[in-house]
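Thought: the user asked what Pyrroloquinoline-quinone synthase looks like in 3D. I have the sequence; next I should run the structure tool and report back without guessing.
Action: structure_tool
Action Input:
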Amino acid sequence: MNIQTDRTSFEARLRKIGDELYHDKHPFHILLHSGGCTIDQVRAWVVNRYYYQSRIPMKDAAFLSRVEDPNLRRIWRSRIEDHDGREEGTGGIMRWLKLAEGVGLDPDYVASARGVLPATRFAVDAYVRFVRDMPLLDAVAASLTELFAPAIHEQRIAGLLKHYDFANDDTIAYFKHRLSEAPRDVAFGLGWVLDHAQTAKEQDAAANALIFKTQVLWAQLDALYHAYVSPRHIPPGAWHPEEGLL
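Observation:
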């Protein structure tokens, strides 16, 4: 098998992981995008997903602290700017807090992360540690869930606008921005992984890292579904419908 064919088959292997394991198939997302969520279920999603969003730049900063290649650092740091913004009041985290305000939540409460589900916190923190501690190839490969993100953002934008009164250009701005940011990030990340995963062992490690990341995303939705949809068991300390509202 020549190198180009092996590279092509490896990319197909990565994409198949997304086809089979990405969290667009989770019942909570299906409920959300079809308009089946109550406003409190949407709020619970916003509260918990914020924790993931807020840790993405921390994850990327931990990654950069280990990178010796100036070119890789230069390209990767745009991910932090996308979430934190280049100046105060901008960036993906602030856009997520605008969504929080739009669904009737106090943005300061959401930003405090006080109401995050234990399982959400555990899964997200595990991802940050993975990127901080694992080989660079594994860390980059874990980010490749972005391969599958534009499709879910398109579904989400359409579903929210169709079914929910809170949805407008301001409240869904986060997802619209990701339509252009994610493809740029993944084009580089995918190319980097394909270039650096040269052996069967390295390709296995990269594939397993991507599987791990899909599990991180799936676990967050499992926790949401269990707490707020069925059987509706909210653990102590997690967000309750009467808490953190404007």
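Thought: the tool returned a structure. Summarizing for the user.
Final Answer: Structure for Pyrroloquinoline-quinone synthase predicted. The chain has one domain: 8-228. The first helix runs from residue 3 to 21.
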